[in-house]
Amino acid sequence: xxxxxxxxxxxxxxxxxxxxxxxxxxxxxxxxxxxxxxxxxxxxxxxxxxxxxxxxxxxxxxxxxxxxxxxxxxxxxxxxxxxxxxxxxxxxxxxxxxxxxxxxxxxxxxxxxxxxxxxxxxxxxxxxxxxxxxxxxxxxxxxxxx
Length: 146
Ligand SMILES: CC(C)(COP(=O)(O)OP(=O)(O)OC[C@H]1O[C@@H](n2cnc3c(N)ncnc32)[C@H](O)[C@@H]1OP(=O)(O)O)[C@@H](O)C(=O)NCCC(=O)NCCS
Known about the structure:
Elements: H1 2-7, H2 11-21, E1 27-33, E2 36-45, E3 52-60, H3 69-83, E4 88-92, H4 95-98, H5 105-108, E5 111-112, E6 120-124, E7 135-136
Parallel strand pairs: 3-4, 5-7
Antiparallel strand pairs: 1-2, 2-3, 4-6
The structure holds coenzyme A (COA).
Coenzyme A (COA) binds at residues 6-7, 56-60, 65-71, 93-94, 96-97.
C-alpha cells in the first residue's frame, strides 16, 4: 500500500514481495509515525567483485515526504549494511537525491550491468573508497521483472 501510493503503481510493491519470497531481502527497515508505516527501505544481496548490496526500493508516504524520513532510512540501512561487512551499496535512482549520501554515478561507471548509465550509482561503506572499481555486478533476479 505504501509502495503503491509512493510510486503511483504496483511495480515496486511486487518487487519487494518477490525479493522477500526469494529470500533476497538482506535488510528491510520501516519508519513508523503514530503506529502507521510512513517509510520503507530494502537492501538485497548482489553478485559483485566486492561485498555489495543493492538499495531498492525506497519509499516514503506522500503525506510524510520532505521531513527527512527517506534520509534517515538510507543512513540507517547503510549503517546496518556496513556493520554486516558490506563494502559498497549500489542504487538505481535520481543522482540529485542520492548524491547527498555519498552515491556517485561516476564511481559506478566501471561496473558492467544491464542498468549501467547515469542512474546507476555506488557508495563506498568502508573508509570512503571502493575496494574494487571495475567488474560485473548482478542484481537479484527479482529486478529483471521490473
Ligand atoms: C524519494 C523519497 C524516498 C524521498 O523521501 P523523503 O522522506 O521525502 O526525503 P527526505 O525528506 O529525506 O529529503 C527530501 C529532499 O529530497 C528531495 N527529493 C525528493 N525526491 C527527490 C528526487 N526524486 N530527486 C531529487 N531530490 C529529491 C526533496 O526535494 C528534498 O530536498 P530539500 O531537503 O532540499 O527540500 C520520496 O520522495 C518518495 O518516496 N518518492 C516516491 C518514490 C521514489 O521515487 N523513490 C526513490 C526511488 S528508489
